[in-house]
Amino acid sequence: MANKGSILMERYELGRLLGQGTFAKVYYARSIRNGQSVAIKVIDKEKVLRVGLVNQIKREISVMRLVRHPNIVHLYEVMATKTKIYFVMEYAKGGELFNKVAKGKLKEDVARKYFQQLINAVDFCHSRGVYHRDLKPENLLLDDDENLKISDFGLSAFVESKRQDGLLHTMCGTPAYVAPEVINRKGYDGAKADIWSCGVVLFVLLAGYLPFQDSNLMEIYRKIGKAEFRCPSWFPPEARRLLSKMLDPNPSTRISLAKIRGSTWFRRGISTSSKSTIVDYVSTDLASANTEEKQEVARIPNLNAFDIISLYAKFDLSKLFEEPILKKEAKFTSWKPASVIISKLEDTAKRLKLKVSKRDAGLLRFEGTKEGRKGILAINAEIFEVIEAFHLVEVKKSDGDTLEYQEILNEGLRPGLQDIVWTWQEEKQPQQSEDQLDEQPNDQLQQQQQQQLQPQQHLIQQEQLP
Predict the structure, then answer these.
(1) Are residues 364 and 395 in the same domain?
(2) Which residues bind ATP (predicted)?
(3) Are residues 224 and 342 in the same domain?
(4) Which alpha helices (H) appear in 272-401, and where do they start and end?
(5) Can you give the residue range of the structural domain that contains 20?
(6) Any alpha helices (H) in 14-107, and if so which ranges?
C-alpha cells in the first residue's frame, strides 16, 4: 500500500481545494488518462485512528458502493497510503445546494425539481437498507446540469445496525434537521428520521430559512419535539399539507416515501410514461393466421452453433473473449410457435400493467407506466429460433431498477408464462442489483448470493484499509 500515493499522482492531477473538515480535505482533480473531472477526498488516517472512526470510514465506502443512483454522488475508487485515505468521487461542479438557498428562497418549480430528485434518491437508499441520517442542503450537491446529488454518507447506517427492538439508537445528524425521536434517545426508525429531514429541506428550499430556529439549542429541540413551525404565506396549500405530514412529530403517523411520491404537489410536472415511444396495447390473434406465423418466424433471428453452446454455463465461451459481467437477464426455452410466445408475452405484460413500446424482428420491449426508483422500468424480450419449432427467449432489463425488474420477473413473468415454458435456464450469476455487485471480484459471488443486503462485510474487500 505504500506506493498508493504515487499511484494517485500517476492517475490524477490535483487542483484547487474545494473544502475541508476536521478529518478530511476535498480537492478538485482531473484524470490523466481521460481528462475527466473528479473530486478527491483526502482523509488523515492518523486523526481517524486516534478518534476511532475507522469503522465509520469503512461503512461509508460500503454504502457508496451499494447506492449507485443518478442523484447520489458516485464513488469511483478508494486508495490508501500509510498516512492518507483517498476517495475518488464524482465532481459536482454546481457546488452545494446550500449556496443557492443562502441567497434566498427558490422558485416553486425549482424547489420541487430538487425535492423530487432528493426523494427518489432517498427512496433508493432505503430500498437497499441504507439510511443517510444527515440530510441537509450542505450535503446536497449540484452537477453541471443542475441535477441534485446526495453526498457525505459518513453518518449513514445499514438496516443491520438496528437493535433487537428494530430501531437505531445512535444520536447523530445536524440539530436543525434532526427528527424529534432521534433527540429523545429512545430509538428511532432510520427511514422515518430521513423523511423528517427531507421535510426540513423542503421547507428551507421554499422559504429560504429554517422552520426551527433559536439562539438556544435546547429551545430548538423543544420546537422540533412539538413540530412548532409556521409556513410563510407564499407556500402553496398542497405544499403546506405535505409539509405538515412530513414534519409530524409522531414517527408512526408520519407520511411514507410512497405517499410523498404519490402526493399532488410532488407529482406535478412528472410524466407518468414516455408517450412519445409507448403505443397502446393491441390484442391480436396471431396463432390463427398461418401466413402471418410463417412471416413472424422468418423474421426471428437464428442462433448459430457458437450461440447455442454459449447458452450453457459449463460451455460458456464468452469468458475467453471478454471480462465476465453480471447480466440482468433470464432465459427460457419453448416448443411453442413464435406467434404463441409473442401473444403470451403481450398478454402477461398487459396483466402486469406493462405497455408494448416496440415490436420488431422477434424483439418485444415492455415499459412500466409509473416511474420507479431509477426511472421507468423497461424490459426487452427477444426470441431466437434454435431449430425449427424450438425457441429460446431472452428476458432482459434494459432500463430502470434491477430489484424492480427481478420482482416483475419472479412474481409476474415466470408464473404468467409457465404454460409455454419448457425450461428456464439456470442463472449463471445470482440475481442481485448492479449497485451492490458493481466491480466486485468473482470469487465473492457465492457469499454475496447468501448475503444480498449485508454489504459491510464484503463490499470493501477490493480496497482493504491497511
Answers:
(1) yes
(2) 41
(3) no
(4) 290-299, 305-310, 338-351
(5) 1-91
(6) 45-50, 54-66, 97-101
| Long-range CB contact pairs, 224-229, < 8 A, 24+ | 224/178, 224/179, 224/180, 224/183, 224/249, 225/180, 225/183, 225/184, 225/249, 227/180, 229/203
Residue 463 inside a domain? The answer is: no
Mean pLDDT along residues 227-247: 96
Helix (H, G, I), strand (E, B) or coil at 100: helix
Residue 285 has pLDDT above 60, yes or no: no
Find the helix or strand (DSSP H, E) in which 390 lies: strand 390-399
Residue of 322 and 132 predicted with greater confidence: 132
Catalytic residue among 134, 152, 194, 248: 134
Task: Give the integer Cα–Cα distance in Å for 96 and 241.
Answer: 27
Number of domains observed in the structure of the chain: 3
Q: Are residues 374 and 420 in the same domain?
A: yes
Residue 100 annotated as part of some ligand binding site: no
Angle between helices 190-207 and 108-127 (to 10 degrees): 170
| CATH code for position 333 | 3.30.310.80
Q: Are residues 108 and 151 in the same domain?
A: yes
Rounded Cα gap, residues 138 and 97, in angstroms: 6
Q: Say yes or no to pLDDT of 20 above 70.
A: yes
Amino acid sitting at position 421: V
pLDDT band, very low/low/confident/very high, at 5 (cuts 50, 70, 90): low
φ, ψ for residue 423, nearest 5 deg: -155, 145
Distances from the Cα of 79 to the Cα of 39, 50, 136, 460, angstroms = 14, 20, 28, 11
Q: What share of the chain is helix, strand, coil (3-state, %, to 5)?
A: 40, 20, 40
d(CA 180, CA 192): 11
How far apart are the C-alpha atoms of 119 and 74, rounded to whole Å? Answer: 17
| Catalytic annotation present for 109 | no
pLDDT band at 208 (very low <50, low <70, confident <90, very high): very high
Selected residue with higher pLDDT from 107 and 279:
107
**Quick one: which of 446, 412, 411 has its CA closest to 428?**
446
- Domain membership of residue 430 (yes or no) is no
pTM, to two decimals:
0.62
